[in-house]
Amino acid sequence: METSLFQFSSLSPSSSSSSSSSFLFLRKKQSFRFTNVKHPNNLSVRASSSSGDSVVVTLLDYGAGNVRSVRNAIRHLGFEIKDVHSPQDILNASKLIFPGVGAFAPAMDVLKNTGMAEALCAYIEKDRPFLGICLGLQLLFESSEENGPVTGLGLIPGTVGRFDSSKGFRVPHIGWNALQITKESEILDDIGNHHVYFVHSYRAMPSDENKEWVSSTCNYGDNFIASIRRGNVHAVQFHPEKSGEVGLSVLRRFLYPKSSITKKPDEGKASKLAQRVIACLDVRANDNGDLVVTKGDQYDVRENTNENEVRNLGKPVELAGQYYIDGADEVSFLNITGFRDFPLGDLPMLQVLRHTSENVFVPLTVGGGIRDFTDSTGRHYSSLEVASEYFRSGADKISVGSDAVYAAEEYLRTGVKTGKTSLEQISRVYGNQAVVVSIDPRRVYVKDPEDVQFKTVRVSTLGPNGEQYAWYQCTVSGGREGRPIGAYELAKAVEELGAGEILLNCIDCDGQGKGFDTDLVQLISDAVSIPVIASSGAGSVEHFSEVFTKTNASAALAAGIFHRKEVPIRSVKEHLLKEGIEVRI
């Protein structure tokens, strides 16, 4: 099956601060091109209507972010896809899905400048089958405050505004939250009080003017609109394609509205935002050139044998699929293989992402090598180009490491946001919710906090000479090089530069199985208003409850104990549930 991918040029980044001019798909006077993409035959599983005809879903993909997962979910459910490449394609659609990704203003520019806005309004006003996802919901409203005010399609009364972080809620709203269903919606029939996955900084609020549209709300500081429904028109703020089997049920109900699918008998216990349990896979090439999942001991990934071979804990695609089945809330890939010899399009990690996203319907994060680089042919790639390729291959978030350290150092030195750093460019194009900064600090003990210029913390465990204080020195190059910046200072700086989440590692705890460094996690999670993922050191289920009760971490990540099957993900969640901590089951 051949489809036409709606894609806008070009890949060249801009230093302009205007969000509408900074998007990849709005370059060069809104020019766009159509690229024919051949999909593997085994992905084209046809669904049939009662008349025996093949059922085709029309997808409005305007070229931003990870829409691959929506495509994979639709195909997984047995439907073929037709891509929109003209306004008439919208009007001719029998079922239209609009998975909006990115920022409000550039998306509206695309719709208006290509004639799609008028066609979309006409399609919806005729009560044709429509499903908007995330930004695809927000654009239906009158306006948005995001880089605005910006006028929307105006089909639903109301303004899309930013979450209020002053109330102590972290922005972006990232994670699995509960729905409060307010009216019959059909597509939500099989959710059964389970969590669904949200990732956004802006939301629409219910009001007397739009209450006839609202089918469910979600609480995050305030009750915001989680879904709308009027007739055959549906839209959701959450991501069904990233909400596991529950999310697939939403898509299935939209695609099979009159089917005899029975409601799922089991009921969940979702009541609020869940603490996330994330499985991490460190991926690198072994000495034979094969990509394997490995795990370090304080970042050393080689076995202590005469052969000194790379520790091999399995194949990345297979392990990711198993963790999805086991209940991981996200899967994170860390690419620790050097790739300067590869052209960007041939990176082995891209194939891992593409294959994983075919069957894993929870968020995928990829890190490692998100920076400017030049391959063996002399071709130069910007960090934005590298990130864009990862997004197109199935990543929902990218994790930036060393490059973020250098950017933060320069920002703290000059106090100037240049707009050219990887964090600024990628967050401007894809939103800060898609940008994770991975911090790799090492504990440095001091006798007196006044001895150093960096933020210190009173430690729970004394240093080797009885020191009561420590600061956390950031490192680059896989922990091999210390830098003159602390984890506290780095976290504050990268939040200002556009990071939407922090992955907080600790070299001292890595692979030790003695628990997370709660001193460090508390320091950083209290310093920023974005979500913090605790990493390094988990060895038992109790370590997860400890980090969630002692700190403000939003998620906890582990690798080796999951790979070696020492602590199953299911056991972690059952323990957290018994401790009264909200988790997705």
TrEMBL record:
Substrate binds at residues 369, 505. Signal peptide: none annotated. It catalyses: L-glutamine + H2O = L-glutamate + NH4(+); 5-[(5-phospho-1-deoxy-D-ribulos-1-ylimino)methylamino]-1-(5-phospho-beta-D-ribosyl)imidazole-4-carboxamide + L-glutamine = D-erythro-1-(imidazol-4-yl)glycerol 3-phosphate + 5-amino-1-(5-phospho-beta-D-ribosyl)imidazole-4-carboxamide + L-glutamate + H(+). Its main location: plastid. Residues 59-255 form the Glutamine amidotransferase domain. GO terms for molecular function: glutaminase activity; imidazoleglycerol-phosphate synthase activity; lyase activity. Gene3D superfamilies: 3.40.50.880, Aldolase class I (3.20.20.70). It is found in: Plastid, Chloroplast. The keyword Hydrolase applies. CDD domains: GATase1_IGP_Synthase (cd01748), HisF (cd04731). Residues 401-402, 438-440, 510-511, 536-537, 559-560 are annotated as: PRFAR binding. Keywords: Amino-acid biosynthesis, Chloroplast, Glutamine amidotransferase, Histidine biosynthesis, Hydrolase, Lyase, Multifunctional enzyme, Plastid. Pathway: Amino-acid biosynthesis; L-histidine biosynthesis; L-histidine from 5-phospho-alpha-D-ribose 1-diphosphate: step 5/9. It is an enzyme of class 3 (hydrolase). One of its GO terms (cellular component) is chloroplast. Residues 1-20 are annotated as: Disordered. One of its GO terms (biological process) is L-histidine biosynthetic process. It comes from the Eukaryota. L-glutamine binds at residue 134. Pfam families: GATase, His_biosynth. The keyword Cytoplasm does not apply. NCBIfam families: hisF, IMP_synth_hisH. IGPS catalyzes the conversion of PRFAR and glutamine to IGP, AICAR and glutamate. The glutaminase domain produces the ammonia necessary for the cyclase domain to produce IGP and AICAR from PRFAR. The ammonia is channeled to the active site of the cyclase domain. Belongs to the HisA/HisF family. In the C-terminal section; belongs to the HisA/HisF family. HAMAP family: HisH (MF_00278). This is Imidazole glycerol phosphate synthase hisHF.
